[in-house]
Amino acid sequence: MKKRLISLFITVVLICSCLDYSAKAAFSVFNIYLCGIIDSDGMDRTGWQTQAESWLSNIPNSAIYKKTAFNKTQLATYLQSSNMFVIHTHGSKNSLRAVDSNGNITRLFTYDILGWSSTAMSVNKLAFIGACSCGSGGSTATNIVTSLFSRGSKCVIGYLGDVNTYCNYLMIESFCTAIGAGYTISEALIYADSCVLSAYGYSGGTASRLTMGNTGQRLATYILPLSSPAIELENIEEYAIYEQYYCNDTDTYVTIYNKRIGSYNTDDYAYVITDRNGKMIISDQPHRGCLDEFKPDEEFFNYCDKEFSVAIEKYGGNYKIEEQRIIGTKDNPGMRYIVKITSDDCESIEQIDVYWR
Amino acid sequence: MKRLILICTCIVFLLLVGCMSKPEATGTIFEGYVENEWVIDTRDTPSVVLMSIKDDKEKIKILKMFKGWNKEEHEVPNERVLDLDMVVELIIDDNLIIQVARDNPGDLLLYAEDGCIYGSIYRRNNGSVVNIKHYYLPVEFSRWLYEQVGDKIEY
Question: What ipTM was assigned to the predicted interfaces of this complex?
Answer without folding.
Answer: 0.85
